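Colleagues,

Please find the record for the four-part complex below.
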Amino acid sequence: MIKLHIDGQEAEAEEGQTILDAAKGLGIEIPTLCHHRAIPPVGACRVCVVEIRDGGRPGLVPACAYPAQEGLVVETASEAVRESRSMTIQLLLARCPEAEVLRKLAEQWDAPPLTLDAPLDHVEPPKGVPEGAGDRDKCILCGLCVRVCQDIIGPAATAFAGRGIERKVTTPYKLLSDVCIGCGACALVCPTGAIDPAEFCSHSIEKIPNEFNLGFDTRTPIHLPFPQAVPNKPILDRENCIHFRTGGCGACETICPAGAIDLEMEDEIVEEEVGAIIVATGYELLDPSVYEEYGYGRYPDVVTSLEFERLVSASGPTNGELTRPSNGEPPKSIVFLQCIGSREETGPGKPYCSKICCMYTAKHAILYKHKVHDGQAFVFFMDVRAGGKNYEEFVRRVSKEKVATYLRGRVSKIFPHDGKLVVQGADTLSGGQVEIAADMVVLAAAVVPSKGATELAQKLRISYDQHGFLSEAHPKLRPVETNTAGIFLAGACHSAKDIPDSVAQASAAASKALGLVVHDRLTREPTIGIVNELTCNGCFECENVCAYGAISPKDIKDRSGATVAVLANINEGLCQGCGACMVTCRSKSIEVQGYTDNQLFSEINAITR
Amino acid sequence: MSRMGVFICWCGANIAETVDCEEVARYARDLPGVYIAQSYKYMCSDPGQRIITDAIQEHQLTSVVVASCSPRMHEPTFRKTAATVGLNPYMLEMANIREHCSWVHTDRRDATEKAKDLVRLLVEKVKRNQPLYEIEMPVTQRVMVIGAGIAGIQAALDVAAAGHEVVLVERKPSIGGFMSMLDETFPTLDCSQCILTPRMVEIMQNDKITLRSNAEVEQVNGYVGNFGVKIRQKARSVDLDKCTGCGDCWNNCMAQNRIHEPEREPECSVASPEIAAKVDAIAAKYADEPGGMVVGALQDIQEEFNYLRQDALTYLSRRISVPLSRLFAVARFYGAFSLTPRGRHIIRVCLGTACHLRGGGSIADTISRELGIGDGETTPDEMFTLERVNCLGACALAPLVTIDGRYHGKMTIAKMIHLIEQCQESGDTVAV
Amino acid sequence: MTEATRLQTPDDLAALRARVVERRSAKKVCVSICAGTGCRAQGSMELLAEFGRQLESAGLDDVELRATGCHGFCERGPLVVIHPRKIFYHSVQMKHVADIIDKTIQHDEVLPALLFRDPKTKQRCEVEGEVPFYAKQQRIVFRHNGIIDPTDIEDYVGADGYVALAKVLAGMTPEQVCDEVEASGLRGRGGGGFPTGKKWQICRNQPGETKYVICNGDEGDPGAFMDRSIMEGDPHAVLEGMTIGAYAIGASKGYLYVRGEYPLAVANLNVAIEQAKTRGLLGDDIFGSGFNFTVEIVRGAGAFVCGEETGLIASIEGDIGTPRQRPPYPAESGLWGKPTNINNVETWTNVPVILERGASWFASIGTEGSKGTKVFSLVGKVNNTGLVEVPMGATLREIVFDIGGGIQKKRKFKAVQTGGPSGGCIPESLLDLPVDFDKLREVGAMMGSGGLIVMDERTCMVDVAKYFLGFLVGESCGRCAPCREGVFQMHRILSRIVEGEGREGDLETLEKLGNYVKASSLCQLGGTAPNPVLSTLRYFRHEYEAHIKEKKCRAGICKELVQFRIDPETCTGCTLCRRDCPTEAITGAKKEPHRIDAAQCIKCGVCYDVCNFGAVEVE
Amino acid sequence: MTEKKTTAAQRDGTDWQPRIVAFLCNWCSYAGADLAGMSRNDYPAAIKIVRLPCSGRVDPMFVLKSFERGADMVLVSGCHPGDCHYSSGNYHARRKLPAFRELLGFMGIDPRRFKISWVSAAEGNKWSSLVADITEEAYALGPFQEFPKCTAPEKTG
């Protein structure tokens, strides 16, 4: 630990840390412009100058680049520092009067406008590609953009051209950069907002959609899944990470004050031993883009019900402001389509009822009215299924209080016209065709099992139906158990369910699992396979046919401990007694107890006599 | 020697109507190994069961066949009954003379014959039965919950509340599932996150619950009570124990956008073979130097091509793996480089201090005036390029001008004009 | 010519030297012609060829012709010295060649017309040493310049070259070498004046196997060319110095960063390196000591800031030459991040002679804190322009008046500027200042690399300040804000002042900005950039005030503030000014008073300078 | 169904009744047969059921033994493919037994006498009609005599 004095206080710093770091440790704020924690400092802007009084060569040094040294006595706001800092800010402000950050610093550090001449017209008029790119009047030439691209990211798309007052940030030959990866690090680190990679990158710039908000806003590769996420810690999306795509960057690792970022981290296989398993893998929505007629995916204002949830959510991308994705305007009319892919006997949909849509559509209508008081809502439905406590009353309120107009029938086509979406459908109650010019269309897409549920079921050796929903052991009497002992189901992985049903089933599954694990021992039928070690020759054909992996090699040792034979051994916990191994065994060295060959041949003898 | 008892159930009329149970009993009694055989109205009733237990005790039966309904129905019942009087339950088997016989056949004779067959079948089997004993296994008293949406969260909390450890596995980096994305919930319209978030936090705080987020089930081994589950804990790149969630990383994440990995055109497309060959030769000169001697290579390229051609520089950049931006920056930094073609005659005017004091500035102004070009510029006919340099190190000759490297000292304005004229006339360098 | 064999031991070197000396010591006639840049520019190479031709046709094939490095007295080139009498001819023209061969060489007759005539004593000086320009000099750094042929290693060996290296490698530890250099009191000649031995010691003590030595030959100060002369005229001395330094520090690779504007220096150094390699004086196992050392030449490309150590390192690394914040110093982390020692050409050149003749000998020369000699390039409004080497502590008066022969055209001395663009101006009142590192710093100037620019009454100090600042605006790398923006703004203010737009308070702003830039800049370029302004403000404030308040430039330099006028009374109508006027602004018939048409006059001042009667006046 | 209620006696006046041995897995087919009983489906009584844990437990030797002992028809029935209680036991049966049937002819057994079927626990009706069908077929094929004739002397006793 290095000890030094800053503003009369004792500060500590580690080897390699700067005065700035040490001051930060004391809570002393030193302004910076050309400094970014991820980028090696160069001390270019001189805003961070501090005065060394003792312990080193006296004078002004940049705190960001000057190493913390033993015994230094540093003043961060002495007269000399203030004068220098104020002058630096004034000079930079003379260059970039528009830069907000400089104006603020000027206020803070008492830097009145200099009675200086404005600097040279240092910015050349753009020739095809703007030199300097971005808002060039704000460029203070701190070099962060150039350095981050060169030293951190790697492609070195930009460079300083010229020197002195003529210095500029530019791309080589002022051409669109084909090495620019479009990451936007330059814009991120720029203290004044002077650079925009869209102006010089030869690729189009594309943001990374935020999955939690279903792509209605964006995120960075390392990101917190959502504000209330548990664990409330970030995750690195390697697909989009510069480090994992190009080998460069690693800024987060440098920056993290806790040293928590580990880019070397690899997938790890951990083994957990448990007595019971509850499967609660949930559901997802059918992708409605399979229905061309609804235009989902083509018309931005056609959204799924889940997307609608995010758009009205106070924690959503619009902070609860319901707006049309196409233009940000509030939707004055909205059409909800139910049964998108549900109750469909043919076609890409599912034959079953998704159960929750009638209810949430009614809810959506209410939420819509909360947000757009003068808006008009329509619901196209097949039947309204509101079986549940207070459900029917809820739906009735929606239709009765004219929160939404319910139209029984299906929609045949949606097409854009004059900034609106024209929804064409049938109203079977009035017997006519209806056409609604809507600002937004919400599709209540069918509930389908979440991806990978069937793969998981196979790993668990539990069964699932043709839709991929996991199967219960008995539809009435064992609704949360599976055919495999010790494995239970909860929630929408079993079938479309609303929240109360899911929670109830979860508690049921928990109680079933508890019923198992409260015991420290378990008994089971002895009708399982046993190996006759006298005749087994260790060919392990049986191992191949065992569906339970119950057969494994066993070393037979003599008294000295040397292995004399390797024979099949049956794990009595795993063996289910199916007998497949027994049939396969050429030397007939396995018997299933209770179903031995001897017994069975006797039975055959008995009935064929 | 087996002492077997055979008990034929009438099942009221269910069996007896079609099967002559007494005859079957008689038949059974004669079968080898059978010690006693008798029939009764309801074997599964209490008196019926007592008949069996009494017989077992009285006759010290070693095995029993009950001919009645499907074993899928009452095998556990009768085995339990037998066990109460000390008979190993696996020494008892059932002959299914109801579902497989009396209920599906109408001919009494056929049915009775079949029932005899079935009884015989079981008698022969049971003769070869061995006493079996139930297997006892330890139970791992923990539960795994796969999926941490509201259902998984609830299940995990319930199990934990009962005092058992839970491993909660979630594929996504956060728990919460779809419910965390919902706004308000029907039919009460309470805020989804408001009711869910406390549960999520509880998961984190409950020390009975081990949360494995960003993890997937890889393989499941074992069996009820003893599952071994291999979980792929996907690399999060964040050490959850160390992370304080301060936000520095995501607020400073350099990738603000999706990344385009640049496709590289092949080297040959950036410069013609002739130019490439020349640049190759230059690059080879500096191959041994760690920095590639960028400045030197650029000097050579300028010498070779008169100026720093874009294609040559681009090619060099690829060749020596130095970013073009760096070459460009170097080219624009140093006074000696030109990115545009230079004239056939390069006039350099020294503006070192000595030359300045002796009127070098006026000489430079004169050239500018005569040729209409400024510093670093070239006349439109590509005849002259003017370079103002900061001392050529021959101060005794001040003011000094060099034309194509040749020194012209003690320059005067008149001499300069004369020199330019001479150059223009001859088109060649002129000696003083 | 001796066959170019590898010198494997110090004895081999001694043997070679003996052979060379024997061959050269014969009382043979030798025509030594200066082939320095100054003399070349005045035709010395043509002269050399002409001598060759005429000597051949005269059948004088035993006369040796030698092209040497710069003698320093460039003002009077081309210079020719005839050995063995060392007759010193200056300003030799082609037409003189025949006479020299005929009279001097064949008949041992001196040609008085070609000898230097002391303007004070009116005496003709036959040999170099008698010329006042040389009389007060002490040539240590320039010990071989003008004497040996720089492209022939044997000449250098003959002049005791590589003796120091042999001595070091044969019997001294690196420690001892560092100590010896430190004991000599040698300080860096590049500007900073840091003790060289100490610097070596620091670098030597750094951990790590790989270390570098660099010779800074990026002589960027305008008006300074001593390093050029050394590199051109005595390249082996530089190499020998670097080799000794590398041995002391523990480096095996050296870089010679040569200014791109010095092609002859590059050529001669390249020849020297090749010869040294052939002789085994560079490369592996030098003198059988096991010590290896190679030198690479890097050509600069025109950036003053590369004279700054860290800028120079960046440039060698193939990047733009922007200096970086120190610490870490190059001695800790320099080229490619390895400990690196940088000295300039003059410093390296001092090294062999110190080790050859001993630290105490060297320490006996100079002043208390500054030992040895210093080479100055004496330029500007002085009669004898050229390179002068004087012991530390010589006064400015000695240099400017005794050696430099005083001010041209008998004008009045005004100031001398030292230390290049970052230096300061010293007024007449301080002419008796003994020149050394510390004294110059005391008066607000600096040694710098040794530029001495003499200014007369026709020099405007505001213009000089503006000139230097303009130079620095153009040469600032632009990395740090104070230097980039501050110097620029100072230059803008000065530009305004010389254009007559000066305002009240400008001088205070200049001082404020100047002090700010000095204190806050990243490197020494910025750290010293305001010196020309600050020092002229200190000694010549009245000139500034005249510009601002009276809108007058008494020196007649600031075009916006002057009017040239011909006094009809004094004008003789000689037409000299009329002929030289570039814009034909002067009219008037022969022998009649001339007139300047103000509308056409560009105020170049040519008329003022050429008038032999003082008829052109400045208003 | 009623027409199919045939007993051996009614059929041709002789006492001959085919012996049909059925190997049923405990989880699907046995339960299916139970269901047929619970549904009171009437079917011929010639079939005798051997209960096994799984169709995968059926050793071809069981089939051979049955024929050797004079069975006229052998049936193996298990869960439908994919529904095996033991995941894959019926797959083993499905591959092994048809291959075995190919060899029956070689051994002098009419392959038509060996039936493989998949009956689930829900298929009581399927079971009863299956039994009716194969009983019918067994009658049509007549008694199986070739095999017992040549093997009986050695085997008995």
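The CA atoms of residues 585 and 599 of chain C lie 8 Å apart.

Comments are welcome before we finalize the supplementary table.
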